[in-house]
Amino acid sequence: MAAENTPMLQQYRRIKAEYPDTILFFRMGDFYEMFFEDAEIASKALQITLTSRHASQNTPPVPLCGVPYHAVDNYLARMIRQGFRVAICEQVEDPKTAKGIVKREVVRVVTPGTALDATILDARENNYIAAVFSPAMLGEKPSQKDQLVGVALIDLSTGEFYLGELSGVMRFQRLLDELQRFEPKEVVVPESHAYSQQTEEQRVLADYKAACVTSYPDRAFQLRAAKQVLLDHFQVHSLAGFGVQEASSGLSAAGALLQYIQETQKSALPHIRKLSLLRHDEFMLIDFATQRNLELYRTINDHARAGSLLGLLDKTMTSMGARMLQKWLRYPLVRIADIQARLDAVEELKKDTIVRGDLRDLLKGVHDLERLITRLTLSAANARDLVALKLSCLRLPEFRRLLSALKSPLIAEQVENCDELQDVAQLIDRAIMDEPPLTLREGKLIKPGYNAELDELRVISKEGKHWIADLERKEKERSGIASLKVKYNKVFGYFIEITKPNLHLVPDDYIIKQTLVNATRFITPELKEYESKVLGAEDRIVELEYSLFQELRQSVSHEVERVLRTAETIAVLDVLAALAEVADRNLYVKPEVSDSDRLDITEGRHPVIEQMKLDEPFIPNDTRMDCNENRLLIITGPNMAGKSTYIRQVALITLMAQLGSFVPAKRAEIGTVDRIFTRIGASDNLSRGESTFMVEMNETANILNNATQRSLIILDEIGRGTSTFDGMSIAWAVAEFINNREILGARALFATHYHELTELATLLTGVKNYNVAVKEWNDQVIFLRKIIEGGADQSYGIQVARLAGLPAAVIRRAKEILADLEQDRHGEAEHHFTKPAATSTASSRKKSVAPKEQMSLFGERPHPVVARLKDLDINALTPLEALNLLQQLQKEC
């Protein structure tokens, strides 16, 4: 390696200056090299050796590291997963013909949101990149009506493109919900805003920690510039056809995002064919708290797909189907006709087990059409990708034959829309070898018969090798040297090698090419002439095969719209078959979905928990809810008895029905809901200075401010993060607010340990009490897991603590303290909530307490003998042990 002023390093520095925020992978022969600071960063990230070189003692050492070009995908994946942006700089001219330093250019920039390689992407999940914009991010002061936040999302690997606008006082919470719902790996924001810590948008991005934030020039977010980028890309005069023309902030985000991806990919992105508006009125909305609390996509504790609702339902056979199922789960339907169409299709496939089994077997052989065609359009596909596309297309006619007899309109629609793409399959089959190499520069890509010039060159190459063999035989006969060999190497080409003892037999027309210790190598005019012809043919074969492959790849990429349309139909069929398979395996029933306000579930079950290997059988439960007499169900009972499981299963059954799935129940009537809200568990947000109680109140406020009468609300403990009376007052007021039909009147399940809330059922219409049945036996509590009408009279907390393994001394002392507290409570003035007045607020009154005596939590302890007797398990003692124990106790007395 020469000093820093060498032409190569000058070229490196010039290219690096154009991509300062990336790690530059600089192609040098068979390696991608990194220098200076990039080398130091990459060596740590990739755990590879960092070296340095210099021309002499007078030149500073240059840090460097490198990775082999044939293994670059694995190293690239590791860089991207750590959040780095990598610029791929290739040699764009042949080093053999280059005059001076080889010309190099950055051919693409790979970022977490623009990755295409299979080693980086999760095949069963989308890989979104987002852009966020509001006028305030550019320092503008919009009017009240223009206070909107625009968001755009693209999955480069599949061509999906969405935009939306969020308004209202909760727009920033909704922005966080959208980011959590789509889980983009990268978020693009205006450059002037990227380093601000003062705006609400920046605080949202700080809360959303799953993506790297990339700054992009402000001018790209200007509405006029952004719209022009979109118009040019879709080659239209107006965006009205996409239904997005009025979404100014969304368009600013969308145009900037599209331009950013075009620049990183050095491509026009022809596979992005449409722009869709995120219309929240067409789907059930699920905020992030609900996604997390119901464990829709991942579990709360270990963030794993296994154990989530998605993990349970995902029996899809293709990666396209897996991604489609996640979209359905992300946005359940609200239109009855759309829901019913899915349910009818699932029902037909559930009943016809033979067709379903054949369909799932057929789906196994279909590769990821969306990502294959994307790689083709972006010139990133290899010959094996084309073969995978061909094999998938060859299966497509079987779908029509298999499903033509089914009656479901949704299935019939998919069959009708499924382009069989046989012309594409035939084109690839004529051209590409059945088992081509992974690389594109080594030949053996194109089949014989596809191109006449290529066939002729192959004949020359093949015959040339035969000619060499014949030449060796003839020269042996002519010279009389039996050990004569015609050989080849890359340095000297073809030559005749003769050992030293036979040199006196060498013919006069042999020309010395190289002298070795034990042999001499010769060339003849005839051999030299044929060498040029054979070797030229082999080089030309490789060049021509690569050129033909590029032409074919370009031709197939023109069918992008047909392939993507077919990919969508295959994905829908895959999801329907998967839901039918799950329903059949798990004994689910078809729900009755209507626009009524009834939630009537008979023997409902939690879909995930019932599949776990538990020590006891899962106990199903009924649910009766409506917006009249059964609006608010107060659920009481001890911890671990099943309250949380029960209220969650009602939400999950409702959600499953509206995404088009059968449900775990004996019977289910589901009056559609527009939103599901949950307030469950305890968490904090210390980075924003929010305590557990503040987070709880924020989530509760979100529910009360955004729920409608058509919503389903799931509350598991309200007010537990503050003092008892403060918490009870808040819980009471929240319950009143939800139940009041003039204010909200939504259906709600409210699990609580505040037994005082059961009084609401006697004061308010629409409130019903339920509790989880338990059985007491020998100071033990047995959970029956059955929801029964009525309120619980105690929480059994000490019994649960015993089950958890608290020391016996702690349990014993807790009982003493509880007895004192309960006795004191009875002696104190009664605390109760009165019936609400016209203002719908609850009031409480407290009588004065005489200061005659203060209750002591740590009063006189009982005699040790009495304590030991209370802790005895008499049934476990043998007669002899009992006598011995009595003798010991007698001594202690």
UniProtKB/TrEMBL annotation:
Any Pfam family matching the protein: MutS_IV
InterPro entries linked: DNA_mismatch_repair_MutS, DNA_mismatch_repair_MutS-lik_N, DNA_mismatch_repair_MutS/MSH, DNA_mismatch_repair_MutS_C, DNA_mismatch_repair_MutS_clamp, DNA_mismatch_repair_MutS_core, DNA_mismatch_repair_MutS_N, DNA_mismatch_repair_MutS_sf
The record's section on SMART domains has: MUTSac, MUTSd
- What are its GO cellular component terms? cytosol
| UniProt-listed GO biological process terms | mismatch repair
- Do the record's keywords include Membrane? no
**Boundaries of each DNA mismatch repair proteins mutS family domain copy?**
711-727
Instruction: Name the segments for region: Disordered.
Output: 826-855
**Mind listing the UniProt keywords for this protein, alphabetically?**
ATP-binding, DNA damage, DNA repair, DNA-binding, Nucleotide-binding
Positions binding ATP in this chain are 637-644
Output the Gene Ontology terms for molecular function: ATP binding; ATP-dependent DNA damage sensor activity; damaged DNA binding; mismatched DNA binding
Q: Is DNA damage one of the keywords?
A: yes
Q: What is the recorded function of this protein according to its Swiss-Prot or TrEMBL entry?
A: This protein is involved in the repair of mismatches in DNA. It is possible that it carries out the mismatch recognition step. This protein has a weak ATPase activity.
Which HAMAP family does the record cross-reference, listed alphabetically?
MutS
Q: Which family does it belong to?
A: Belongs to the DNA mismatch repair MutS family.
Q: What is this protein called?
A: DNA mismatch repair protein MutS
Origin organism lineage: Bacteria, Candidatus Moduliflexota, Candidatus Moduliflexia, Candidatus Moduliflexales, Candidatus Moduliflexaceae
